[in-house]
Amino acid sequence: MELIIYLLIGAIAGFAAGLFGVGGGLIIVPILYIVFTQLNYDPSVIMHMAVGTSLATIIVTSISSVTAHHKKGAVMWNVFRNLAPGLILGAFFGAGIADLMSGQGLQLVIGFFAVWVAYRMFRGSNTPVDPSRQLPSTGAQMLAGGGIGIASAIFGIGGGSLTVPFLNRCGVVMQKAVATSAACGLPIAIAGALGFVWFGQQSEVSVPNTWGYVHLYAFIGISVMSFMTAKLGAKVAHILSPAMLKKCFSGLLTTVGLYFIYQGFSAYF
Question: Name one GO cellular component term (predicted).
Answer without folding.
Answer: plasma membrane
